[in-house]
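Hi P.,

Sorry for the delay on this. The queue was packed all week, but I finally got your sequence through. Input first:
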Amino acid sequence: MLLRDIQRAFETALLEPVRVFEEIATTKTFSAPSDFTTDDLCLLEGVLSRTWQIWCRFCRSLIMESCRGTQEISGAIVPAIPKAISEDLVSGAAIQAKLGRRITWSRANTILRNEPTWGDVDVLLDIANGLRPGNLAKIISMCTMASSGAKLIQMVRNASAHDNHQSLNGLTRFGTAYAMFPIDHACQALFWVEHTTTNYMLPYALEQLDAAVKYVVQ
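Then the structure:
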């Protein structure tokens, strides 16, 4: 698959979650937990989970295609790693890289739940540095560009999945970058406002991911 195709798949998959978020954002004003209905929270949890899944899928596809050989939008060829002859072998090698082990391309993995968290940019860096595809330098730069946005989405998503006061308190570390209001559910943080752009947290994070995706596929 060409890198152009995985970019298009990423952008297309995001259309509906973004639409749902924008519908909520343009019909209500949120500045306190009481402003959110149960319907709002259910929709936002779905948007958040779906967004994270889409980012993870892009990162997985990027590694898979880069290791097996692909082409950038510019026309530049990313040569295949000779032993990366199947997704199962790349998956197995990625697991080894995440664990800091020496890469052996004979250990296939066929159980998807055993794969690393592809969207975690620190994990993705470990995988890329371990497997060393031909576009390694661009993947490293992409991770740097996407780091803040990806970590924002990951932290809010994890805090939503593990709904407790400690998880909520962990979100306050973004306090200097955002105009915050008190929250009693992690999804409400998606409506904190980033100071420099005045964007809500989720659109701000997605802008960073979008820029990183466009860079790495060029």
